[in-house]
């Protein structure tokens, strides 16, 4: 008989995983402790913008016309316990307020609730990003006869559906003699997901570390190129050309070498900090002191963007000056504004007296909630109207497709600063703009 699957926690990770499992043909029950979320998901809608996810949900959520009916949602732990052969725990692990360590309270609460209801013989699978050592501790919370596996998730926001249905690797941490857990997960991830994806089986600590190591490596790549951008700025070099040239070396690779205002979001910043905190607890903090530098190079970029804007305005004060900000989310194709470099820059300029007007294709609602005192416009054109300087801070396709000649007609001063190295500088210059990008020479 086909395995029945539950997914606990329905954020980016959980909602996507639940829909993907239904797409693979499994009966799926999703649980969240927030009733509004359950209500929304049960009607086939998602509480965030993620390309393709709503379509996938609508294809499977029970009660929607024409759906497979394989996906349901509940807030009842009893129902989850009675239903599931395999339980995926997908709750979030945010950074603790004022500390580097991550907050494990949601994971702990999920395991405690699940432990009270889970059937003997079921498999519990942790997917949340946790400090190394957590799986061993959490396994002890589960009753006799219930196995645990650790199966980190590498999905990117904006590509969540595609990354879940076609992962570039599947990593499974099991206990010694955990062959049954491995066999069950191989069954879950059998074709088409597993097709062609390397399936790496290892122990708990390695599986947990794979995730934090991967995110640390990505953060390091970005901060490396941003450090090179700082040197290019001092020496008059061009970081975009430099990235292109070193990226041709297969050992380095061209991806994740875009210099700009740096990384943000709900994962990279908090994951490297939690990793440092955990290494400290383990007495291995020296091994990760470089991550402190990665973090500070990253945070410095935001201030450097503010200074670039100040310089473009004549070098002294923002008081009374109009600054248009294109982009609010931490990356394009998402409405997520958590730790967004774009909003951070906008906020700093606002605090220094600038009149900031922000426009973002999908992040307006979240941005308004987080920074209600900033100015907002309903389109890029409206945002730049009357602006003394325009900052391009999130690289949405919509911004690359703007007509610089049209925008030039409505600004007070045609100066654009590209904080993502993503606009076609020549095109903007040809339309009469002063175009400047981080880490690149002035024309
Ligand atoms: C990341 C990891 O990529 C993913 O594997 C993991 O599961 C979760 O964390 P995500 O947070 O969705 O995913 O975003 P990602 O695409 O990694 O981008 C993170 C940040 O880095 C964004 O703010 C982006 O703008 C920035 N970035 C990315 C750069 O500044 N330069 C680059 O070259 C690439």
Automatic annotation (TrEMBL):
Q: Which family does it belong to?
A: Belongs to the UDP-glucose/GDP-mannose dehydrogenase family.
Q: What are the residue boundaries of the UDP-glucose/GDP-mannose dehydrogenase C-terminal domain, all occurrences included?
A: 324-425
What's the EC number here?
1.1.1.22
Q: Does the keyword NAD apply?
A: yes
Q: What Gene3D superfamilies does UniProt report for this protein, alphabetically?
A: Cytochrome c1, transmembrane anchor, C-terminal, NAD(P)-binding Rossmann-like Domain
This chain belongs to the protein called: UDP-glucose 6-dehydrogenase
Q: Which organism is it from?
A: Streptomyces wedmorensis
The residues forming a coiled coil are none
């Amino acid at each position: 008989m086909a395995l029945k699957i539950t997914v606990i926690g329905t954020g980016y990770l959980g909602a996507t995983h639940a829909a993907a499992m239904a797409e693979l043909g499994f009966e799926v029950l999703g649980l969240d402790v927030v009733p509004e979320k359950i209500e929304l998901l049960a009607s086939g809608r998602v509480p965030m913008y993620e390309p393709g996810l709503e379509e996938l949900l609508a294809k499977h959520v029970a009660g929607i016309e024409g759906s497979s009916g394989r996906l349901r949602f509940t807030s009842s732990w009893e129902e989850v316990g009675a239903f599931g052969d395999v339980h995926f725990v997908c709750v979030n692990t945010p950074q603790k307020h004022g500390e580097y360590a991550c907050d494990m309270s949601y994971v702990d609460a999920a395991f405690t609730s699940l432990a009270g209801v889970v059937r003997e013989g079921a498999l519990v699978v942790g997917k949340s990003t946790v400090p190394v050592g957590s799986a061993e501790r959490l396994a002890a919370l589960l009753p006799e006869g219930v196995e645990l596996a650790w199966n980190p998730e590498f999905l990117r926001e904006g590509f969540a559906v595609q990354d879940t249905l076609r992962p570039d690797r599947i990593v499974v941490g099991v206990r010694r003699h955990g062959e049954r857990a491995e066999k069950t997960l191989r069954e879950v991830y059998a074709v088409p997901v597993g097709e062609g994806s390397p399936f790496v089986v290892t122990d708990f600590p390695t599986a947990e570390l794979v995730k934090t190591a991967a995110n640390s490596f990505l953060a390091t790549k970005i901060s490396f190129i941003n450090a090179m951008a700082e040197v290019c700025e001092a020496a008059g070099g061009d970081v975009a050309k430099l990235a292109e040239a070193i990226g041709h070396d297969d050992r380095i690779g061209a991806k994740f070498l875009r210099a700009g205002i740096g990384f943000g979001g709900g994962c990279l910043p908090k994951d490297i900090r939690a990793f440092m905190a955990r290494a400290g607890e383990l007495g291995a903090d020296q091994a990760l002191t470089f991550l402190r530098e990665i973090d500070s190079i990253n945070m410095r970029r935001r201030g450097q963007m503010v200074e670039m804007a100040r310089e473009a305005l004549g070098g002294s004060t923002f008081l009374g000056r109009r600054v248009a900000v294109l982009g609010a989310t931490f990356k394009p194709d998402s409405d997520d504004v958590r730790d967004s470099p774009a909003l951070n820059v906008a906020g700093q300029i606002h605090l220094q007296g600038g009149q900031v007007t922000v426009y973002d294709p999908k992040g307006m609602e979240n941005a308004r909630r987080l920074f209600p005192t900033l100015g907002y416009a309903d389109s890029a054109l409206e945002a730049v109207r009357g602006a003394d300087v325009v900052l391009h801070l999130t690289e949405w396709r919509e911004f690359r497709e703007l007509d610089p000649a049209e925008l030039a007609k409505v600004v007070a001063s045609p100066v654009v600063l590209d904080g993502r190295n993503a606009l076609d500088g020549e095109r903007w210059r040809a339309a009469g703009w002063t175009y400047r990008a981080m880490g690149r020479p002035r024309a």
